[in-house]
Amino acid sequence: MICDKVKDCMEQTKHIESEKKKGKKRLQNGKQPREDRYPQPLSCAPCGDNEKQKKCIDFLDKRSQIKCVEKGKTYILDQSKECPRHEIIKFFVDKGIITEPEASTVCKCDNALLIRDSFGTVVLVELKGGDVHHAIKQLSKTLFQEQLYPAWSSQKRVFGRVVCKSTPPRIWNTDECMDLKETFLSLNGNLKIAEEIMVEKYNELGQRELNS
After folding, report:
1. HSE on the CB side for 114, CA within 13 Å?
2. Phi/psi class of residue 131: alpha, beta or left (left: φ > 0; alpha: ψ in -120 to 50)?
3. Nearest Cα to Cα of residue 112 among 169, 158, 78
4. SS3 of 61-83
5. Which of 20, 128, 146, 148 has its CA 20 to 30 A from that of 1?
């Protein structure tokens, strides 16, 4: 199944603040509680399936570093210098937003990060073992998936990130890569590819790579 409620999830999902937390404004040592940690549960899923929501959403909070890790590859978005930090939802696309039987047949990326900033920002992330050409295809297919495109296009900035084992020579000169790069630029974002690990600061999302 491919969820058609992602746009609603992005707009409506929030944490249900307990009465206990509402009344406890300071810790015993007098310090304010950390703003980047929230208790469960989340609000009722727009799809009406709270169990599925747990498989779709990894977290919703204001943590300083957002990590996507798979196949020994890592993408990290660092917002530790932001004040205040932005609330971020990390979605599992593979086997979350897209489940079986489509998960085995539909081309899709691994994660999607919704950043609730003043723009409205989405980062699509694919962590790939080796086939960068296929990773680019996965980002493209996820971006234009009929049920999902309304969610991404509802935001003002959409970025694509690929972290892979190695980068083929002249990858940026291929038609598929140039087309996808232009697509993200048209959505006020960009496409970046890195080997093994990519760490970028929130305020550097819009910076272009020298080799792209």
Report:
1. 25
2. beta
3. 158
4. ECCCEEEEEECCEEEEEECCCCC
5. 128
Helix H, strand E, coil C: the string for the chain is: CECCCHHHHHHHCCECCCHHHHHCCCCCCCCCCCCCCCCCCECCCCCCCHHHHHHHEEEEECCCEEEEEECCEEEEEECCCCCCCCEEEEEECECCCECCCHHHCCCCCCEEEEEECCCCEEEEEEECCCCHHHHHHHHHHHHHCCCCHHHHHCCCEEEEEEEECCCCCCHHHCHHHHHHHHHHHHCCCCEEEEECEEEEEHHHCCCCCCCC
Q: Walk along the chain (212 residues) and give the pLDDT tens digit of each residue.
A: 999 999 999 999 988 765 445 544 555 555 555 554 566 678 888 888 888 898 999 999 999 999 999 989 999 999 999 999 999 999 999 999 999 998 899 999 999 999 999 999 999 999 998 889 999 999 999 999 999 999 999 999 999 999 999 888 888 999 999 999 999 999 999 999 999 999 999 999 998 765 55
For the record, the structure tokens of 2 come out as 């491919």
